[in-house]
Design a protein that fits this description.
The chain is mainly α. The chain has one domain. Helix content is about 75%, strand content about 0%. It contains 15 helices and no strands. Helix 1 packs across helix 5, helix 1 runs antiparallel to helix 11 and helix 2 packs antiparallel against helix 10. The chain is globular, with a radius of gyration of 19 Å. About 45% of the residues are buried. The N terminus and C terminus are likely disordered. It is found in: Membrane. Pfam families: EamA. Its main location: membrane. Keywords: Membrane, Transmembrane, Transmembrane helix.
Length: about 300
């Protein structure tokens, strides 16, 4: 699949390439940041802080639109469901997973998103699964199984699962539901306003859980590392990753932009090894090859079929 490097707004070939490569790097940075902060900031506190920072950063940008149009008459139950899926259930478990598993494993599990979206669409909206999609799902799940059981056949037979991988699978299921819901029940809000709603709503929903976390384990010390880490995640993951990805979508279309997300595991594995000292194992390469092959198989469409749609 070739990127349409020439754009009508003057971005230019290399500008599109830069943004296409930058979006997955920012998403991978979120996973690395969570892993770096594990043991320093509890996961619910980290998720709350990340969304609070993002909401505060976005508020001056979206305030004129909020003052002019409010929330555009979008039904409150629909917004609450989006907040729960995209702002709570897909974030807090991910930060919890960082205490148990590597950033590379988190990213490999995240690569399942397009295929899990397809399964949700089939179950909830009756969207047909093409044979290629079924083959892709099977291939990708084999890759995830290898990552989950660390390439250890004995662990597979004993069903020894890392709790971090289970938490991450739950987070990816919630994120896939959020993505599918937006696709089939889009909301009439500008992208940044919707992101602000998810950020502000996520912070408000997570705050009581963070207070309970403090009650059980004590309030975490507000060290420079903790504050800087939450600022980094709010800026990079809460605003930057979404903003850059949205720009790529506007330039090359949603289908092509989603292909950039398949680079997240490669970034996370490489940077995790370089910056966090996480060891790269042969099973990582096998797992990533199977996951990316499964996604490629599942998202491939012959040109004739694509033109027919």
């Amino acid at each position: 699949m070739r990127l349409p490097f020439a754009t009508t707004d003057g971005t230019g070939r290399w500008g599109v390439v830069f943004l296409f490569l930058c979006a997955p790097l920012l998403f991978a940075a979120n996973m690395l940041g969570a892993r770096w902060l594990s043991g320093t900031v509890p996961p619910l506190t980290l998720a709350t802080g990340r969304w609070a920072v993002a909401a505060l950063l976005l508020l001056p940008v979206v305030w004129p639109a909020l003052r002019r149009n409010g929330l555009g008459g979008v039904p409150l139950p629909q917004l609450l469901l989006l907040v729960m899926l995209g702002g709570v259930l897909s974030v807090a478990p991910q930060y919890g997973a960082a205490s148990y598993t590597s950033a590379g494993n988190i990213a490999l599990l995240a690569a399942l998103t397009p295929l899990m979206v397809a399964i949700i669409e089939r179950v909830v909206w009756g969207v047909a699964l093409r044979p290629a999609m079924l083959a892709g799902i099977a291939c990708a799940f084999c890759g995830i199984a290898i990552a989950t059981f660390r390439g250890d056949v004995q662990a597979l037979l004993r069903l020894e699962v890392n709790p971090g991988d289970v938490l991450m699978l739950f987070a990816i299921l919630a994120w896939s539901g959020y993505t599918a819901l937006l696709r089939h029940r889009p909301v009439a809000l500008p992208p940044l306003v919707l992101l602000w709603v998810v950020a502000a709503g996520g912070a408000l929903c997570l705050l009581p859980l963070a207070l309970l976390e403090w009650g059980n384990a004590g309030m975490p010390p507000l060290s420079g590392r903790a504050m800087g880490g939450m600022l980094f995640l709010g800026l990079i993951a809460g605003v930057g990753a979404y903003g850059v990805y949205g720009r790529v979508v506007s330039l090359v279309g949603a289908a092509r932009a989603s292909m950039s997300m398949y680079l997240v595991p490669a970034y996370a594995l490489g940077l995790g090894s370089l910056l966090l000292g996480e060891s790269l194992q042969p099973y990582h390469a096998v797992s990533m090859a199977l996951v990316l092959s499964g996604v490629a198989i599942g998202t491939f469409q012959p040109r004739a079929a694509a033109r027919a749609r």
